[in-house]
Fold:
Amino acid sequence: MSQVGDLGMSVGYVLKQAAAALRGAMDDALRPLDLTVSQYSCLEVLGQRSGLSNSELARATFVTRQAMNQVLRGLQERGLLTRPAEASHGRSRPTELTDEGRRALAAASRAVAAVEQRMLAGFDDDGRRRLLGDLLTCRDAVS
Amino acid sequence: MSQVGDLGMSVGYVLKQAAAALRGAMDDALRPLDLTVSQYSCLEVLGQRSGLSNSELARATFVTRQAMNQVLRGLQERGLLTRPAEASHGRSRPTELTDEGRRALAAASRAVAAVEQRMLAGFDDDGRRRLLGDLLTCRDAVS
DNA sequence: GGAGGTGTGTCAGGATTTTGACATGAGTCA
DNA sequence: TGACTCATGTCAAAATCCTGACACACCTCC
Structure:
């Protein structure tokens, strides 16, 4: 006898499906802009909080700092962000968006916002706030 | 420490975070059983609906059929499932769990259920049903 | 001052996934 | 029958991510 019961009724399973569907839709929306979801996530976090280090960005996007390092190199190569050649304190190097990076972020942000708008079309303001709170509860409970 | 500002108010961003946290917790819970999340997902779907083909399993778990093929090979190698040597109709080969596969699934299902229980500790029955319905709405709207 | 612990950046290797491609089997329709 | 379309399985290459490891910088405590 399965502990999970009907798979279609498992919150965890549907959560995973919803996240996968969202990621796929974001991927499609970002492909014309030549950005991956990981790259966009990095830019978005940097747009909100400038000057974060590699490790801080990794934690914010739920990937390892090694993976984030690869993303940062690619974005730096393309001129979308800058890092000082050497750290001023410790080993961490604060990352900043360039003007071109801000332009790319603006375009990507619009594309992703359209996807999120489509995902939440069936919710009113109260419903969205409620869903957001529920997801925060889940995230914190399982972390 | 790292409040991300407006990003923390994005349902899509928090959905991604919650799914990532859940995946990490599932990974930890399944590691003692020598199963990855992908492998468990495959077993769980097969436990619910036996006889699915490679492509059907891939769609059910939101991965490509190439990736699912790799998972199926590993599980078949370990004797957790069986596939007929050749297809009886078309090219699809229906997959079935072995007795050992069912035992592994039962143990994994218990471990994952504990994680999900922890994730939903803060919800009552109505809250869980509501969250499940909201996630289904999101999934279908963005697919 | 020195030892130990923590956080950070980076390198290397392996595992997983995706993209692109090709061949096969089944169904549709002229 | 033959051309066309579609779904499936599979192979190969590339991209991505993770695990393990190492060195460096800072901090605390003795």
User: Anything to note?
Assistant: Strands of chain B lie at 81-82, 96-97. Residues 36, 38, 63-64, 66-67, 70-71, 87, 89-92 of chain B lie near DNA strand C (CB under 10 Å from a C1'). Residues 27-142 of chain B form a domain with the Arc Repressor Mutant, subunit A fold (CATH 1.10.10.10).
